[in-house]
Design goal:
By secondary structure, the chain is mainly alpha-helical. It has helices spanning 5-29, 34-39, 41-55, 61-84, 107-124, 131-155, 168-187, 196-211; strands spanning 91-93, 100-101, 104-105, 159-161. Keywords: Membrane, Transmembrane, Transmembrane helix.
Length: 214
């Protein structure tokens, strides 16, 4: 007997997420193929974007608008960060995230959408009724993820800091920007989504935590 279509979509999406993160870990752990896997990081992000959009209950103008807003806000914040050294601090992007516009990888806008959407969905499952508390705790979740990401990002040429390590300003910037965009997620009043977004967020935590062992 077949299950509901939404459940089938979620199962397919979660399987892809887990499979590709496992494959990615293997690729990063084996020195001989690590350069190849670094080159396909942008394609991995695009695949995760496609999986998340596929898993969303209803693809409509509302979702497209949210994607556009988070992409533009995230990209603009990174432009300010790289060129004016505001928000996050003094840093620049390496080659790993792929094609750049104004020295900012286009994939960074996609990544901000994924981070905000997945955390927003994760907080939908938290059971927290207070909107402001969901936003604040969601922003904390993303800051903690960035703590895991930063050493890996520097090591694998995602981005680099003028001071070699991420300054405190970076984490404050992440908290404020994440809170702002999570507030926008809440304002869109998306219905409770499948657990795909939450699974992708958890997969990111596990992925970057394990990369500290490389």
């Amino acid at each position: 007997m077949e299950g509901p279509p939404g459940l089938k979509k979620a199962t397919i999406a979660i399987t892809i997420i887990i499979l590709f993160h496992i494959v990615g870990l293997v690729g990063f752990f084996i020195p001989a193929i690590q350069p190849l896997f670094l080159k396909i990081v942008p394609f991995h992000l695009l695949l995760m974007f496609a999986v998340v959009v596929y898993s969303h209950q209803v693809f409509n103008k509302k979702l497209v608008a949210f994607i556009a807003i988070t992409f533009v806000l995230g990209f603009a914040a990174e432009w300010v960060g790289v060129h004016l050294h505001l928000i996050f601090g003094n840093y620049f992007y390496g080659k790993t995230l792929g094609l750049k516009l104004f020295d900012i990888p286009l994939m960074i806008g996609v990544n901000w959408f994924l981070l905000i959407y997945c955390t927003g969905v994760f907080m939908q499952y938290s059971g927290i009724k207070n909107l402001n508390l969901r936003v604040i705790l969601g922003a904390v979740v993303l800051v903690l993820l960035d703590v895991l990401i930063e050493p890996i990002a520097i090591r694998f040429d995602y981005w680099h800091w003028a001071g070699l390590t991420a300054p405190g300003q970076n984490y404050l910037g992440w908290f404020i920007l994440s809170g702002l965009m999570l507030g926008i997620f809440e304002a869109f009043k998306f219905s409770r989504q499948s657990s795909v977004g939450a699974v992708l967020l958890i997969a990111q935590y596990v992925f970057f935590a394990l990369l500290h062992l490389v």
